[in-house]
Amino acid sequence: MNDALMLPFDVRLMHMTASVLFAVFxxxxxxxxxxxxxxxxxxxxxxxxVTGDVTHNNEPTLRANVxxxxxxxxxxxxxxxxxxxxxxxxxxxxxxxxxxFPNRLRVELQEHQAAAYWGxxxxxxxxxxxxxxxxxxxxxxxHETLPRLDGPAGQEPQVLAMYQVLQPMLxxxxxxxxxxxxxxxxGWTAELDTGAVIELGRGSDDEVIQRMTRFLRTIAQVTSxxxxxxxxVESADLRHADGYALRLRGVSTVVMDSQKK
Length: 261
Description:
The structure is a single chain. Helix content is 35%, strand content 27%. By secondary structure, it is of the alpha/beta class. The protein has 3 domains: 3-38; 43-111, membrane protein fhac (Ubiquitin-like (UB roll)), CATH 3.10.20.310; 114-260, 3-Layer(aba) Sandwich (Rossmann fold). The strands form 2 sheets. Strands 6-5-4-7-8-9-10-11-12-13 form a 10-stranded mixed β-sheet. Strands 1-3-2 form a 3-stranded mixed β-sheet, with helices on one face.
């Protein structure tokens, strides 16, 4: 028979109580020891190594801006909060933060790639290649020829996608798309680098693209009738069902489908 079963109940209870107390004491001791170790100054975050996109940021800048705001040390640092602090830095779109024992952080950055200015002329916001708006010093933009796009909040990806379709179409006629605006009612307006303003109207993206396709397919022929090139267009209204209204510098006319055939 098992000797433990032969012991009186009070003796067995005393043994179990002692075991529990010993386990609690061991846990408390380990916790205190871990807390003491964690508070040692040699574990305070002392350096940051930055990799990835560093066109607009570098280690000294990030160290000066972020390091003083980090809470905790190697063991207690909140990595989510640290990531948010790095992503709050201008031009940073995404950050991955990792601990490096005993007192360093390794940060991999992904910066915004500016695709356009966003908003009215006096706005300083930018649009990245993912169709996301971000705030940054526009004086740091590498490409001075970025277009200006505008539209209702939440429609940024749609406006960028439309620009990416229309710009190559215009380039075939050596024209550039400087501004593209989507109104709150869904109407599209384009402004070219020649100063021409083109009203594209409302409708699905396919319908708008079809109107522009028709316009670009015929505009060279129309302007040549007046001894002009497509860059002489002053304004065009593509919202007509059977053609478009056109104004050339020094000439005003309306071109209908029946006239183009």
